[in-house]
Amino acid sequence: MMDTGLGDINAHFKVYIANRPNFADFQTTQRVVPLGRGELEAIGKTCGNGWRKVFNVYAKVLFALNCEHLVSVHKATTWQEFRDKYLLQATSNTSLLFTPPELTNNDIHIVMGKAYAKSLGLSLEWINDDFAISPKAKLIVCPYFDYRQLSNIKIVTLVELIRQQSGNHNTTKHL
């Protein structure tokens, strides 16, 4: 199966979500579509606050991760700038995928939501009620990208899990 979603078709940092935004042809696309400047904002305005939150939390995670060999955030001074100028664009090394993970490579895989992860039938080690890992696959399950579910303190936990999976131990940028 081929990846379907938003972002960089060659991304090595992949986030998986169970639903798609009702925007443009995203409901039917069968490929990874890079976004241009302003499109994240347009999706948020058209599809609702929930999508805006997903993009905001995604950017906050990557900005806090501050890991050059995974995703370069050095050109941005804030997570908001990173979101608006780089997230899910053609050469961002980031993607938001609507298809189940294919765990055949050395990418970082993040599955949003316990219910979605359980529906995928993945072999997981649950760390606590919110997070699970599959170390051999470099896969992490975390709460849905929403401020209430993936709070700043849980973002710190997610960042540490990503670092463990990728073998990187840079310092966290402040949100």
How helical, in percent, are the residues? 25-40%
Q: How many DSSP H or I helices? A: 5
The count of DSSP E runs of length 2 or more, i.e. the number of strands, is 8
- Sketch the topology as an H/E string, one letter per element: EEEHHHEEHEEEH
**Main sheet attributes: strand count, strand direction, barrel closure:** 8 strands, mixed
Globally, the shape reads globular
Radius of gyration: 15 Å
Mean pLDDT: 87
Structural class estimated from helices and strands: alpha/beta
The spatial strand order of the largest sheet comes to: 3-1-4-2-5-8-7-6
Q: Stretches where pLDDT falls below 50 for ≥5 residues? A: none
State which percent range the strand residues make up.
15-25%
How many angstroms does the end-to-end distance come to?
36 Å
Topology:
Layout: E1 5-7, E2 13-16, E3 32-33, H1 39-47, H2 49-65, H3 79-85, E4 94-97, E5 108-112, H4 114-119, E6 125-126, E7 132-134, E8 139-142, H5 152-166
Parallel strand pairs: 1-3, 2-4, 2-5, 5-8
Antiparallel strand pairs: 1-4, 6-7, 7-8
